[in-house]
Amino acid sequence: QSVLTQPPSASGTPGQRVTISCSGSSSNIGSNTVNWYQQLPGTAPKLLIYSNNQRPSGVPDRFSGSKSGTSASLAISGLQSEDEADYYCAAWDDSLNGGVFGGGTKLTVL
Amino acid sequence: EVQLVQSGAEVKKPGESLKISCKGSGYSFTSYWIGWVRQMPGKGLEWMGIIYPGDSDTRYSPSFQGQVTISADKSISTAYLQWSSLKASDTAMYYCARHAPIGDYWGQGTLVTVSS
Q1: B28, B30, B77, B37: which is closest to A102 by C-alpha?
Q2: Which of B56, B59, B61, B111 is 20 to 30 A from A97, alpha carbon to alpha carbon?
Q3: A9 lies within 8 A of chain B by CB
Q4: Average pLDDT, chain A
């Protein structure tokens, strides 16, 4: 049981916009920033979004993040086949004094 | 260029000890927290703990406290994750990740297989 809650799966067709949610509590998302990671099959995770809505250099602007209260969302617009991957959210948890991840969302491009 | 390079895959028997490594380069190793993340087969990411190589301050997830030891040798810019007595349930991929923020850079992963 992950501390942060994500839907196990999401899907969309090429060109569509999809969103993935991440729900937490006051001790994690409610009081700290959220990061998002993309994990392509057989590879290490890659930072996609940090500080709720910032993109590292090289990440396409098709990817965007937002946060409100104790929830966060990742949006992917103009969906492409290469976006098919697992997506994870993470945040620092003040009660646990450590990092916490969501359970991950498997994105399928139909 | 920031790089984290992990040691190679390991196959161990239950009860054996193990220490895997993660060597950082391209940045000031002593100035950033670095941590470990577990991914069991077919499962999600689990945050295990972090260490600040500058002063060896270490934090553990309650789920991993007492089960593993995180350490670092700043003289060779290397962080470690070790077990004193492996269990079959320790079979997983283990990633090191710099925390600036959490997981801004990741190692390639070390696959640990524990089987009799």
Answers
A1: B37
A2: B111
A3: no
A4: 97
The number of C-beta contacts closer than 8 angstroms across A and B is: 64
Calpha distance A106→A38 (Å, rounded): 10
Q: Is B45 on the interface with A (CB under 8 A)?
A: yes
Spatial distance between the Cα atoms of B95 and B85, rounded to a whole number of angstroms = 20
* CB atoms B45 and A44 under 8 Å: no
Q: Is any Cβ of chain B less than 8 angstroms from the Cβ of A36?
A: no
What confidence tens digit (pLDDT) does each residue in B8-61 have? 999 999 999 999 999 999 999 999 999 999 999 999 999 999 999 999 999 999
Q: Which residues of B are less than 8 Å from A47 in CB distance? A: 101, 103-106
Q: Which amino acid is at A71?
A: S
What is the band of A1 on the pLDDT scale with cuts at 50, 70, 90? confident
Contact between chains at A44 and B95 (C-beta distance less than 8 A): yes
* Residues in Cβ contact with A48 at an 8 Å cutoff, skipping those fewer than 6 apart: A35, A36, A37, A38, A55, A56, A59, A63, A65, A74, A87
Q: What number of other Cβ atoms are within 10 A of residue B38's Cβ?
A: 21
Query: How many Cβ atoms from other residues are within 10 Å of residue B41's Cβ?
Result: 9
pLDDT grade, residue A45 (50/70/90)?
very high
Does the CB of B74 have a partner CB in chain A at under 8 Å? no
* Interface membership of B65 toward A (CB under 8 Å): no
